[in-house]
Amino acid sequence: MKTINELAKFIGGIVEGNGNLKIKNTAELDNAVPGDIVFLFETGLADSAKSSKASAIVTFENVSVDGKAVIKVKNPKAAMAKIKALFEKPVRFNSGVSKKAFIGKKVKIGKNVTISPHVVIGDSVKIGNDTIIYPNVTIYPKSEIGSNVIIHAGAVIGSDGFGYVKENGKWIKIPHTGNVIIGDNVEIGANVTIDRGAFSSTIIKSGTKLDNLIQIAHNCEIGHDCAITATVSMAGSVKIGDRVQIGGQAIFRDHVSIGSDSIVIGRSGVTKDFPEKSFISGYPAQDHKKELNLSAQIRRIPDIIKKVDEIEKKLQK
């Protein structure tokens, strides 16, 4: 258990109310019981939070909740992540290497690594400290995994890229002899596939988070601290800068680049390069403001057609 004052110090917040109350767990606003701490992300819910049975609420600096102990912070969601980590340990299998895992030759495994049942690790793979690999993950030979990495079930790291050349009506496979390099503090979702490079490396840099069901093709390079949502698909040699956010179902043609600190709206079709701090959407993707303007004009087309028809009818009379 922690007191509210202790939690506030831990997250850099300011206490309003009784800071000596003891907190046992985290909870959602509607399901909380005494001893729980809850998190308020919308200022408009402050009135409804009064009826919660929670002992304390974490919310924005400009919000007060009558009759409740409150920890005020700049970023309640970041505070939630830190506090939940104190009370709720992530689900994981027993640490160490499962007897049901297959480990190849010349594999280097760091300290405090969890390798779950039915994981397959190819020859000459390197895995850093404190990494967690969940069941049924396949890591191909020569892949390099950093420290404090989480790889969820079913992910495939280092499979061949989709590379072929056509000759006399037949497809000839291009051997992929590169590898995959994954930095520190990366999280890879379930059933993500990351292809090895054709000659060099496919790279996922430190701090990046990948959701489930993402396809990253050969020789792509993803920068530091990116966040990529489910079902994104990248063709070969895509370059993504640092701190880029990509929405679900976005697709990227080969050899395009996105500058750092950009946002790609979900379901965008990226067919050309964009500089840093871009905000893009649509298919083909373009500046988001231009896309909104184009969409508004397209929605006007039925009304324009209707007016044209009315004018033609008057002229025919």
Mind explaining what this structure looks like?
The structure is a single chain. This protein is of the alpha/beta class. Helices cover about 15% and strands about 30% of the residues. It starts with a strand and ends with a helix. The model has no long low-confidence stretch (mean pLDDT about 95).
Helix-strand layout with pairing:
Layout: E1 2-3, H1 4-11, E2 14-16, E3 22-23, E4 25-26, E5 36-39, H2 46-49, E6 56-60, E7 69-73, H3 76-87, E8 96-97, E9 102-103, E10 108-109, E11 114-115, E12 120-121, E13 126-127, E14 132-133, E15 138-139, E16 144-145, E17 150-151, E18 156-159, E19 164-167, E20 170-173, E21 179-182, E22 187-188, E23 193-195, E24 201-204, E25 209-210, E26 215-216, E27 221-222, E28 227-228, E29 233-234, E30 239-240, E31 245-246, E32 251-252, E33 257-258, E34 263-264, E35 269-270, E36 279-281, E37 286-287, H4 288-316
Parallel strand pairs: 4-5, 5-6, 6-7, 8-11, 9-12, 10-13, 11-14, 12-15, 13-16, 14-17, 15-18, 16-21, 17-22, 18-23, 21-24, 22-25, 23-26, 24-27, 25-28, 26-29, 27-30, 28-31, 29-32, 30-33, 31-34, 32-35, 34-36
Antiparallel strand pairs: 1-3, 2-7, 19-20, 36-37
Give the end-to-end Cα distance, rounded to a whole number of Å. 84 Å
Q: What radius of gyration results from the CA coordinates?
A: 25 Å
What composes the largest sheet?
A: 11 strands, mixed
- Number of helix segments? 4
CATH class of the largest domain: Mainly Beta
Tally of strands: 37
User: Could you list the spans in which at least 5 consecutive residues all have pLDDT below 50?
Assistant: none
**Taking all residues together, what is the mean pLDDT?**
94
